[in-house]
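Dear Dr. H.,

I hope your travels went smoothly. While you were away I took the liberty of generating a structure for the chain from your last submission, since the lab meeting agenda had it listed for discussion. I wanted you to have the full record in hand beforehand rather than looking at slides cold. The sequence, exactly as received, is reproduced here:
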Amino acid sequence: MNLKELYQEIILDHGKNPRNLKSINDYNKDAKGHNPLCGDKVHIYLKLNNNMKIEDISFEGSGCAISMASASIMTELFKGKEKKDVKEIVNDFLNMIKEKSELSTNILNDDEKTKLMCLSGVKQYPMRVKCATLSWHTLTSAMNNDKEDVNTENVKI
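The corresponding predicted structure, in token form, is as follows:
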């Protein structure tokens, strides 16, 4: 199996069987996001402990396979991570989606990097970049306690 086929398999698996697709009852931060161009919607739920570590993370929403796969991969990736590491990974991911060909962070292991790299192909389809980044911008909004819903038309991608 070549790398492109592996990436497609990961996206299809997470798109059809999203992980952490649920609401968590004891969340202490949340945010909603919307991509009006294709109708993707996401609601991110976070449970941060006193040390700013993500104890639990989940999402509810609907959308295309890219949007759902990205949210699913993101929630798996960030469970147990500290806020400062999450910020670094989010910035690295967004840079990779926009312009870079690789991730540069050293926080992730090889398996985690592979899962994120599977979304790198969306940069070839500019309309899909907003699908892949919606949940990531919404997570950032939740962590920052922003009160406005995320709208991909108003976010600098």
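Two observations you may find useful: The first strand starts at residue 29 and ends at 35. The chain has one domain: 3-144.

With kind regards,
E. W.
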